[in-house]
């Protein structure tokens, strides 16, 4: 099965897109150059077929092969416990921001299983591995930046102490997302005592000011909070 899937991936290679993607994801040198819409079409077809057999035998050699597995997990229908088993097996394969973020975006079953997935995420948001930690943070920002979870989310973000660039950027992104959705508690956190390092704090402010959903007057306030 994996040979058939690999051929279908190779049939969609776009050399111009390969150059573009490689520049965006400098940490990965196995990019073939297949556009996401094509990978999503393939993932949906696999999800309707014997997806368990596919995931058990899938290749990990190329960026697109790993990305495809993550997309398939997001499209399949199964019990939450089984899905989380596949998520746990997949996370160690994440070695770049693109696979991480696309994978997280696809795990929409989280919306119907908030507390179960919250518990599942705890080891990841406390991990010392850069992409395990980024996975946990991105999951928080996509699915948990809401009133019932905001205090817990901000507390977890504040405890992140990791020098990885892609972790710092994820924390900044998460804080900007929290601010857009819930400005009052997030502003209290940013303006109060927090444990953010200088880069992450200022990057969070920058991302907030770049949002089209934040009013100009508020952006002035945010800019005035920059640390030096």
Layout of strands and helices, then pairs:
Elements: H1 2-10, H2 15-24, H3 36-47, H4 51-57, H5 63-75, H6 80-90, H7 97-106, H8 114-125, H9 130-143, H10 150-158, H11 165-181, H12 183-191, H13 198-210, H14 216-224
Helix pairs in contact: 3-5, 5-7, 7-9, 8-9, 9-11, 11-12, 11-13, 13-14
What does this structure look like?
There is one protein chain. The protein is built from 14 helices and no strands. With 228 residues, the protein is mainly alpha-helical. The longest helix is centred in the last third of the chain and has 17 residues, at 165-181. It is globular and about 55 Å long. The N and C termini lie far apart (56 Å).
Task: Quickly list its features.
single chain; 228 residues; mainly alpha; 14 helices; 68% helix
* Shape designation: globular
* Largest beta-sheet details: none
Strand content: under 5%
Q: How helical, in percent, are the residues?
A: 55-70%
Element string (H = helix, E = strand)? HHHHHHHHHHHHHH
Query: What integer is the average pLDDT?
Result: 97
Total strands: 0
Radius of gyration: 19 Å
SS-based class: mainly alpha
What is the rounded distance between the termini?
56 Å
- The number of helical elements comes to 14
pLDDT below 50 for ≥5 consecutive residues: which ranges?
A: none
């Amino acid at each position: 099965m994996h040979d058939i899937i690999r051929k279908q991936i190779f049939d969609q290679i776009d050399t111009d897109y390969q150059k573009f993607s490689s520049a965006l994801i400098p940490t990965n040198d196995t990019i073939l150059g297949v556009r996401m819409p094509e990978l999503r079409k393939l993932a949906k077809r696999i999800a309707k077929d014997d997806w368990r057999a596919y995931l058990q035998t899938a290749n990990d050699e190329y960026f697109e092969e790993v990305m495809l597995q993550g997309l398939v997990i997001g499209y399949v229908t199964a019990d939450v416990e089984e899905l989380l088993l596949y998520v746990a097996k997949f996370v160690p394969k994440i070695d770049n921001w693109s696979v991480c973020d696309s994978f997280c975006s696809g795990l929409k079953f989280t919306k119907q299983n908030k507390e179960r997935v919250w518990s599942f995420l705890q080891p990841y948001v406390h991990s010392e591995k850069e992409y395990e930690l980024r996975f946990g943070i991105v999951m928080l920002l996509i699915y948990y930046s809401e009133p019932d979870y905001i205090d817990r989310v901000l507390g977890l973000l504040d405890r992140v102490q990791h020098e990885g660039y892609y972790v710092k950027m994820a924390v900044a992104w998460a804080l900007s997302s929290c601010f857009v959705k819930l400005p009052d508690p997030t502003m209290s956190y940013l303006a109060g005592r927090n444990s953010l390092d200088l880069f992450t704090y200022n990057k969070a402010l920058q991302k907030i000011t770049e949002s089209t959903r934040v009013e100009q007057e508020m952006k002035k306030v945010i800019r005035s909070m920059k640390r030096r």
